[in-house]
């Protein structure tokens, strides 16, 4: 397990699954649980508005050394709560 610094970006927007679009969340640290070539899962480290939530990242694109990810944030019942985009900043 290691830590990744991620910067949420607008992309196509950030959306609650049960509602409207939301403001782009602040940067967060992801404590990884599992990784392979295209998918990373883990939890958001405190302090953050989505701390301790489970996150799954899938690679969207890589350009000029920056990797962009699709982001799924899960609630406590393992349902997708939030979707968006982020880039790796470390």
Short description:
It is built from no helices and eight strands.
Q: Could you explain the architecture of this structure?
A:
- This protein has one domain (3-88).
- The protein has no helices and 8 strands.
- Strand 2 (14-16) and strand 3 (21-22) form a beta hairpin.
- The radius of gyration is 12 Å and the shape is globular.
- It has 90 residues and is mainly beta.
List keywords for this structure.
90 residues, mainly beta, six-stranded antiparallel beta barrel, 8 strands, 0% helix
User: Strand pairing plus helix content: what structural class?
Assistant: mainly beta
Order of helices and strands: EEEEEEEE
- Determine the number of helices (DSSP H or I, runs of at least 4 residues): 0
Number of strands: 8
Strand-residue proportion: over 45%
Low-pLDDT regions: none
Shape: globular
Question: Could you report the average pLDDT, rounded to the nearest whole number?
Answer: 93
Distance between the termini: 15 Å
Instruction: Please give the order of strands in the largest beta sheet.
Output: 1-4-5-6-7-8
Structurally, the number of domains stands at 1
Radius of gyration (CA) equals 12 Å
Helical fraction equals under 10%
Q: Mind describing the biggest β-sheet?
A: 6 strands, antiparallel, barrel
